[in-house]
Specification:
The chain folds into two domains: about 110 residues, no CATH class; about 60 residues, Sandwich (HSP40/DNAj peptide-binding domain), CATH 2.60.260.40. The protein contains five helices and four strands. The chain is about 15% helix and about 10% strand. Helix 3 crosses helix 5. The chain has about 200 residues and is of the alpha+beta class. Strands 1-4 form a two-stranded parallel sheet. About 25% of the residues are buried. The C terminus is likely disordered.
């Protein structure tokens, strides 16, 4: 699961300004009843009254991005929350993706509904060759990450897979000898200052 502090920085950049709904633009009665009960008169959310297990997940197309953001900003949110262990769709009907998803998959879907790509699914840049001084940075939530290179420009050669390691100083494509570096964080860090202490040094040797 992505670092919650980073998710909060994306959704709520100013910690001194709590998540707030503009009730003039989006009236309370437009939200799911379970969420309505948690919205204070000033637009802030009272999470003690927000029972996420009662949210209607059957209408995925009209699922509120605002409510998705509110869920992701819930203090202490974890995959152990009952919200991530749903009973599924009702008998006799094909469930929606939200209804049948569980755990980290549902977390990812919530991110998409909130307008965030929590797991960095976009392809790596293939418009330049990485160098020792300016490698192609690969962000990861794990210390080991596998990637596939197809050359510069993309599809210039067959896909060659390589294993990037946080503790390794040598990570490069065997075809292009393009140095790559891995950061022990998720792709959300692309939006923040890169912490060199977490980066893997690379070389061409």
């Amino acid at each position: 699961m992505p670092d919650q502090d980073l998710v909060h920085q994306m959704l709520q950049p100013d910690p001194d300004k709590p998540f707030k709904i503009d009730l003039k633009k989006t009236p309370r009665d437009t939200f799911d009843p379970a969420f309505q009960l948690a919205i204070r008169n000033d637009g802030t959310v009272d999470y003690s009254k927000f029972d996420m297990s009662k949210i209607d997940l059957s209408d995925e197309l009209n699922f509120s991005p605002i409510m998705a953001r509110a869920i992701l900003l819930k203090p202490g949110l974890s995959l152990d929350d009952p919200f991530f262990l749903p009973p599924g769709g009702p008998i006799g009907r094909v469930p929606t993706d939200l209804e049948q998803s569980t755990g980290i998959e549902r977390y990812e879907l919530l991110g998409k509904l909130a307008g965030l790509d929590l797991f960095g699914m976009e392809p790596l840049p293939s418009d330049r060759l990485g160098t020792v001084d300016d490698p192609v940075l690969v962000y990861s939530s794990e210390p080991i990450h596998y990637i596939g290179c197809t050359g510069i420009p993309a599809d210039s050669h067959d896909t060659l897979f390589m294993r990037l390691e946080k503790w390794s100083k040598h990570s490069r494509c065997k075809e292009w000898y393009s140095p790559l570096s891995i950061c022990i964080h998720l792709s959300l860090l692309l939006y923040f200052a890169f912490d060199a202490d977490w980066a893997v040094a690379v070389s061409t040797r």
